[in-house]
Amino acid sequence: MQEKEGYVLAPCCRSSGDLQTYRRMVEIGVKIKGLKLDRPERWKERISEEVQKLLSLKEQLGDARPQKFQLKTPKGTRDYNPRQMAIREGVFKTIINCFKRHGAETIDTPVFELKETLTGKYGEDAKLIYDLADQGGEILSLRYDLTVPFARYLAMNKINTIKRYHIAKVYRRDNPAMTRGRYREFYQCDFDIAGQYDLMIPDAECVKIVAEILSELNVGDFIIKLNTRLLLDGMFAVCGVPEDKFRTICSAVDKLDKTFWEDVRSEMVDEKGLAPEVADRIGEYVRLNGQLELVDQLMQDEQMMKNKMARQGLEEMKLLLTYCQLFGVLDKVSFDLSLARGLDYYTGVIYEAILTTEKVQSDGGDKNEPVGVGSVAGGGRYDGLVGMFDPKGKKVPCVGVSIGIERLFSIMEAKAEAAEGKVRTTETQVYVASGQKNMLEERMKLCNLLWEGGIKTELSYKKNPKLLNQFQYAEEHGIPFLAIIGEQELKDGVVKVRNTSTREEETFPRDKLLEEIRTRVGPS
């Protein structure tokens, strides 16, 4: 269907009813043109009515034109080119090495779970879960995180103790902010310790792991915020929050890392029905942050110490900060009462790592209040989650951390762009080359010798490539060495090895080549 000068032209009609609809659309098109030619301001409402009629008829008929297919990735997703993948693999390697250094083993779980497995675990974030169409009697959803599937795995396999890491994609129907590393499909890197252990020891190791990873990746200055759910609930009780509003108010406080106190207060009072004076009391507490001195200060607060949950939370925080000091990361942590983490399954310590190199200040707000800084890791203790899946409600205490890998990828990619340096996208160590014709079979034999010796090797796929082109390929791809052969080398039983960066050449006996190459490239 096309429009020309106010007339609607029918390309073809599938039925007599279609033809009548097209004729009616032509009539309306003529009427609209006439009204516009007369006095468009006078007939503004009439024109609008006729346009709505025309749109309704179009919708009823359907567009007869073939639709142009737009090639793009779905909203909130992206492709990764070889350069980006090389950066990602480097980040993964750093993280996995850290996990393994702390004694973790790995597992995997399905990308989708039974919907009932995920239901009731995420509080207000449950609306972000992707539900799948019924494909055979099971109602399924894409996994929202790796923690709930891990708890299901423990309960299903009756596992009481494990230290595991899991790196996989998760899915959220969130509003993506791709420049800030927030997607609908993204990787999570989780480290969790399950088992009955003494207080705060595993929790402190999780904090240590976050500090190690962020330091090794050199992403900039960061701080790891710490708090406990016990202290939060105790604080809410002291401030006068009704117990049935604890979780919903916790979700509001959780937004303080993304917005300002005034907005959070407004949500508490206007949307969630909290008394203004109660919200103000909460505001006095959530502005506090520090370390052991803040714990001591709050222990002098009579109202806090009268509340059992608050008192226990402060004792746990004091122990955690002491262990962080022993692990050498006290300078990287901050006891922060604004940290809430809105997920329902947290029961104890919670933490979140924040980059402090970027700040936004509010108009008229606290100029020292950081807003919009990048959260790059988070986690906490969830002692009751496994019991939710166990028929007898048997609990397996767990604590863990999730590294915000997509945010880290965005930072590392930006750093690589700023450095304007080459990022190697392959790990090839040797390029087999020849400057003479009819040497393909000999190049292939030499390539095979190096492959079987464990050397990462390439060769040109042309029968008679030019030697200069082979040199340029090695330089452009950062391949450190070339193994060059020709008729004379074959006759003498030797191979010429060229250093790509220095352009120095050495000749070695063929039977010593593997040994010499390994000496120069190091372990694979």
From TrEMBL:
Organism taxonomic ancestry: Eukaryota, Metazoa, Chordata, Cephalochordata, Leptocardii
Source organism (scientific name): Branchiostoma floridae
GO cellular component terms given for this protein: cytosol; mitochondrion
Catalytic activity: tRNA(His) + L-histidine + ATP = L-histidyl-tRNA(His) + AMP + diphosphate + H(+)
Superkingdom in the source lineage: Eukaryota
Residues that bind L-histidine: 145-147, 172, 188, 192, 341, 345-346
Gene3D superfamilies linked: Anticodon-binding domain (3.40.50.800), Bira Bifunctional Protein, Domain 2 (3.30.930.10)
Enzyme class at the top of the EC tree: ligase
EC annotation from Swiss-Prot or TrEMBL: 6.1.1.21
Protein name according to UniProt: histidine--tRNA ligase
One biological process term in Gene Ontology: mitochondrial translation
Pfam families: HGTP_anticodon (PF03129), tRNA-synt_His (PF13393)
Domain (Aminoacyl-transfer RNA synthetases class-II family profile) ranges: 53-412
HAMAP family linked: His_tRNA_synth
InterPro entries associated with the record: aa-tRNA-synth_II (IPR006195), aa-tRNA-synth_II/BPL/LPL (IPR045864), Anticodon-bd (IPR004154), Anticodon-bd_dom_sf (IPR036621), His-tRNA-ligase (IPR015807), HisRS-like_core (IPR041715), HisRS/HisZ (IPR004516), HisRS_anticodon (IPR033656)
Keyword list, A-Z: Aminoacyl-tRNA synthetase, ATP-binding, Ligase, Nucleotide-binding, Protein biosynthesis
Single Gene Ontology MF annotation: ATP binding
Family under the similarity heading: Belongs to the class-II aminoacyl-tRNA synthetase family.
